[in-house]
Write a structure and sequence with these properties.
- It is a single chain.
- The protein is mainly α and 193 residues long.
- The protein has one domain.
- It is 81% helix and 0% strand.
- It is built from seven helices and no strands.
- The longest helix is centred in the N-terminal third of the chain and has 26 residues.
Length: 193
């Protein structure tokens, strides 16, 4: 995958993080800088860990040998993964539920569990990256930066505006993942894969 596809997928997946953190922000009375930095760290590290872990799993000798001899199958499987992720996010966005409560602070256990839950999407995206033999460094850098930006934006958006319109965030993320699938299809048809 090239940098545009990595960026589109990272933004699409990070909109899931934005959604979760926006809900956290709507529950807070104040945003403490130290807690914000720890939240960024938890989400960014987990997103990268999930993606790199899944990339590693699909690059194991037997699996990699199977997919490297079948580039068409690997591309098709990557597209299918992105389509399922995209449609899943769109459905989550349509089934949006309101949140209207303020807490003093969120527990770290809640933040960690949410980071792990959002990491499931990242793991599947990581598998798609691995199937397409995407280099690790751009994935790590782009995912880390995009996740950090969306954690900050989501927390402050939720804090200032609540969770109004959070369902649309999931829908946009899903559409971006579907666009990434189309980009892979176009690259395959053009013979670039």
């Amino acid at each position: 995958m090239d940098l545009i596809e990595i960026l589109v997928i990272s933004v699409g997946i990070s909109l899931n993080v934005y959604y979760v953190v926006m809900c956290f922000g709507s529950l807070l009375r104040t945003i403490e800088e130290s807690r914000l930095l720890k939240t960024i760290g938890i989400f960014a590290l987990w997103q990268v860990f999930a993606e790199v872990g899944a990339q590693f799993l699909v690059s194991i000798d037997g699996i990699e040998g199977f997919f490297s001899s079948k580039k068409t199958f690997a591309a098709l499987l990557s597209v299918m993964i992105l389509i399922v992720l995209g449609l899943s996010m769109i459905v989550k966005g349509i089934k949006d539920k309101p949140i209207e409560e303020r807490l003093t602070q969120l527990k770290y256990s809640t933040i960690i569990l949410s980071g792990i839950a959002t990491g499931a999407y990242s793991a599947f995206a990581g598998a798609a990256f691995g199937l397409m033999k995407t280099p690790l460094l751009p994935v790590i850098v782009i995912t880390s930066v995009v996740t950090a930006v969306f954690v900050i934006a989501g927390l402050y958006t939720g804090y200032r505006m609540g969770c109004e319109g959070k369902g649309r965030v999931h829908i946009v993320g899903g559409i971006l993942l579907l666009c990434a699938a189309v980009l892979i299809i176009l690259r395959y048809m053009a013979g670039l894969i």
